[in-house]
Amino acid sequence: AQKVTQAQTEISVVEKEDVTLDCVYETRDTTYYLFWYKQPPSGELVFLIRRNSFDEQNEISGRYSWNFQKSTSSFNFTITASQVVDSAVYRCALNSNSGYALNFGKGTSLLVTP
Amino acid sequence: DTAVSQTPKYLVTQMGNDKSIKCEQNLGHDTMYWYKQDSKKFLKIMFSYNNKELIINETVPNRFSPKSPDKAHLNLHINSLELGDSAVYFCASSQYLNTEAFFGQGTRLTVV
Predict the structure, then answer these.
(1) In sequence order, what are the residues at sequence separation of 6 or more whose Cβ sits closer than 8 angstroms to the Cβ of residue B28?
(2) How close B112 comes to chain A (CA, Å)?
(3) Across the strands, what pairs with B45?
């Protein structure tokens, strides 16, 4: 069975603070794929990143960075110097070679206030 | 051009009616999906359609049926609508089963 846990339901930060969103996953497969999506208040789902299980290299894209650690089954997402436009629900997801679709966590709602 | 488009964006209908939501992707992807986002904002897979193979989440009632006239389209038909079917339905597509999915803007279905 596959499972994604995003223990943080809601996070509120003040603009320019750094914030880390946690994602812990469970799978019995040795080959799997991890994803992050952003869902702003307008409702659409925006793809942010995909990471393969055999690639533990961390990723940085502008103010966004991702920390993948197989030893702790975690794929955490950090926003540096947060901005109001970062306010959204962020969803972590998992798929594997034995799966047939993205399996999403419950999401973390991030509110960035001025 | 919108990569994954679904229509209508809003759908209000009475209990017992039959309705359809259309989805089209112009990305040339092989796989399409339907997801349901309920009132608690949980996002759950309903169907996956890959190379004419349909994979169904066993929790989905058989009143829901996907229909794919061609690789670029995956429509969702819902029979005998119930109040509990009210949700936002998202269509998505991906190149393969384990690659990132791109989502449509969602269809908010309200059953009254």
Answers:
(1) none
(2) 22
(3) B35
Residues A35-60 as b/e (b if ≥16 CB within 10 A, e otherwise) read: bbbbbeeeeebebbbbbebeeeeeee
C-alpha A63/C-alpha A98 separation (Å) is: 33
From B35, B98, B105, residue closest to A44, measured CB to CB = B105
* The pair of three-digit structure tokens given for residue A3, joined into one six-digit string: 């499972």
Q: Which residues of A touch B43 (CB under 8 A)?
A: 45, 91, 104, 107
Percent of chain B with pLDDT over 70: 99
* DSSP character at residue A6: -
The DSSP annotation for A58-86 comes to -EEETTEEEEEEGGGTEEEEEESS--GGG
* Higher-confidence position of B25 and B2: B25
- Collapse the DSSP code of A23 into the 3-class scheme (helix H, G, I; strand E, B; otherwise coil) and give the result: coil
Q: How far is CA B12 from CA A13, B33, B39, B74, B84, in A?
A: 37, 22, 16, 21, 13
Q: For the segment B18-64, what is each residue's pLDDT rounded down to a tens digit?
A: 999 999 999 999 999 999 999 888 999 999 998 778 888 888 999 99
